[in-house]
């Protein structure tokens, strides 16, 4: 462990004790050595006793910096783990980080390019356009064609800082895992592992560039989403260069109204974009907070979204997509029994779950929502409530569903902010019904056959040989099985014959012994005993010895 790691560990412990987070651990499960360790830091006291525990956790994460802030933001979406008070408090965490020295940014960019900035770019702006916890953005023009671009570069030593914090988090999670015991609902080690995958993905700008290219290609002909062009030749693990775009931040509703933006159409397109990414492309932007989304300034009557920052993308497998679509449709149709069955069939809850009890719990959650106007029902909160209900029945955490849930909440929140009367149901239900019909209807079967036909056509010439080989193998197997059957029957025949002789000899020996003890003539007893001995010897000699078939 390095000096830097020890220093960072002390800083984390100091912050945890300063906000009294150690008091949140169950005292009955806390081992003696933990209390001893706590008392050894006697000069660090809880300075925020008057604040609720959820607020103390938020303030501590905010003080510890970007890695912990992002962890808190992720946890705020985990309603399957946290109650409303904690989740809503953590949702208020803001990632506000001052920019780092532009000289360091220039040095990092030139290290990746292996050339001076001026040899490839003109008008490089030393003042950053934006600054975040992981990276910083500067503007410039490409020397080859004059195109306006932005250069996104990672902060100096951010990888080492993230790795150090992740190591501390993993150690703390392992301690909590042992403290809470097996079967605990929080599963801290699993949560930190999910977070580790997410944040390490954000540290690779080359991966973000590939994500942006894929998302852009998925919506090349779309009038709903525009993803800036990425200059692949200038993208590296710590540097990404992409087209500079101008738009209005999606959260600036006043500016959107001022230019006459069709907010109803814009809100509906946001919903359609979400379902298209999830169900059509199986590749959705999972970090769609307002800072990453802009609205076009062109043709406000037919507005489109501009998507930025593709560091966190989500995918679902075909099984999850189908179960999710069926789940939503079952909710639309108020079929709570089907919802309960889907959760169990998909493996999201234990197969030992009481279906009737789970169905009743789902009904208690969902039924009151139908008493509200459709534009007041939150689709995202329906999903949250279902996860929260499933939590009582030992839900199995699905990381991909957590990303989906977070994205849906973002999209719905933006839609309602843009157009409060947004009827999410009328937009979503036809899309889901059409998607389901395409998955299980005749068209789906035809498409699958069409997709597989080139492979089958390639293998068709091999069919006669494969059929002949299989028949040959089958005939060989039948011959082998017949030989085994013959051996088995022969063994059984010998066994029965041997048993017959042995049983008969036992009867004759018993009869001979009885006659010998009576006052009768001796020769019948001698005959029985002699015959019994002969039959016993014959049966013993004829017993089968080979039991392998």
TrEMBL record:
It is found in: Cell membrane. The active site is at residue 287. It is a multi-pass membrane protein. Keywords: ATP-binding, Cell inner membrane, Cell membrane, Kinase, Membrane, Nucleotide-binding, Transferase, Transmembrane, Transmembrane helix, Ubiquinone, Ubiquinone biosynthesis. It comes from the Bacteria. Pathway: Cofactor biosynthesis; ubiquinone biosynthesis [regulation]. Its EC number is 2.7.-.-. Signal peptide: none annotated. The chain crosses the membrane at residues 499-516, 522-540. It is an enzyme of class 2 (transferase). ATP binds at residues 129-137, 152. This is Probable protein kinase UbiB. It comes from Shewanella electrodiphila.
């Amino acid at each position: 462990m390095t000096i830097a790691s020890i220093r960072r560990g002390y800083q984390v412990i100091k912050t945890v004790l300063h906000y009294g987070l150690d008091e949140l651990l169950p005292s009955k499960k806390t081992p003696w050595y933990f209390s001893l360790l706590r008392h050894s830091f006697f000069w660090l006291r809880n300075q925020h006793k008057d604040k609720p525990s959820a607020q103390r956790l938020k303030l501590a994460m905010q003080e510890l910096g970007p890695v912990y802030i992002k962890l808190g933001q992720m946890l705020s979406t985990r309603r399957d783990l946290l109650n409303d008070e904690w989740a809503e408090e953590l949702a208020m965490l803001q990632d506000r980080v001052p920019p780092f020295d532009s000289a360091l940014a220039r040095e990092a960019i030139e290290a990746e390019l292996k050339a001076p900035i001026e040899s490839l770019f003109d008008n490089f702006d030393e003042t950053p356009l934006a600054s975040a916890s992981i990276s910083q953005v500067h503007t410039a023009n490409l020397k080859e064609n004059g195109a306006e671009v932005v250069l996104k570069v990672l902060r100096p030593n951010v990888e080492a800082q993230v790795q150090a914090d992740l190591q501390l988090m993993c150690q703390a999670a392992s301690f909590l895992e042992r403290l809470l015991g097996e079967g605990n609902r929080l599963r801290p080690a699993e949560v930190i592992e999910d977070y580790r995958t997410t944040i390490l993905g954000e540290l690779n700008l080359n991966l973000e560039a590939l994500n942006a290219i894929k998302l852009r290609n998925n919506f090349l002909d779309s009038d709903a989403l525009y993803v800036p062009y990425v200059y692949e030749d200038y993208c590296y693990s710590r540097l990404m260069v992409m087209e500079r775009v101008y738009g209005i931040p999606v959260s600036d509703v006043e500016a959107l109204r001022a230019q006459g933006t069709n907010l109803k159409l814009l809100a509906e397109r946001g919903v359609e974009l979400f379902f298209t990414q999830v169900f059509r492309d199986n590749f959705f932007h999972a970090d769609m907070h307002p800072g990453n989304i802009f609205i076009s300034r062109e043709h406000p009557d037919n507005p489109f979204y501009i998507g930025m920052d593709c560091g966190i993308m989500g995918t679902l497998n075909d099984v999850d997509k189908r179960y999710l679509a069926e789940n939503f449709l079952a909710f639309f149709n108020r079929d709570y029994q089907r919802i309960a069955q889907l959760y169990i069939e998909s493996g999201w809850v234990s197969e030992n779950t009481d279906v009737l009890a789970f169905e009743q719990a789902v009904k208690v959650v969902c039924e009151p929502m139908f008493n509200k106007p459709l534009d007041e029902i939150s689709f995202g909160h329906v999903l949250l409530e279902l996860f929260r209900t499933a939590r009582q029945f030992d839900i199995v955490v699905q990381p991909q569903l957590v990303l989906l849930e977070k994205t849906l909440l973002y999209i719905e929140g933006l839609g309602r902010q843009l157009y409060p009367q947004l009827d999410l149901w009328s937009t979503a239900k036809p899309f889901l019904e059409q998607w389901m019909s395409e998955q299980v209807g005749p068209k789906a079967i035809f498409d699958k056959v069409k997709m597989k036909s080139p492979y089958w056509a390639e293998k068709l010439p091999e069919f006669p040989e494969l059929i002949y080989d299989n028949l040959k193998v089958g005939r060989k197997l039948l011959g082998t099985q017949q030989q085994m059957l013959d051996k088995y029957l022969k063994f059984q025949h010998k066994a029965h014959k041997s048993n017959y002789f042995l049983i008969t000899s036992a009867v004759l020996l018993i009869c001979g012994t009885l006659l010998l003890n009576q006052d009768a003539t001796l020769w019948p007893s001698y005959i029985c005993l002699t015959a019994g001995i002969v039959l016993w010897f014959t049966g013993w000699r004829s017993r089968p010895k080979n039991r392998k078939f």
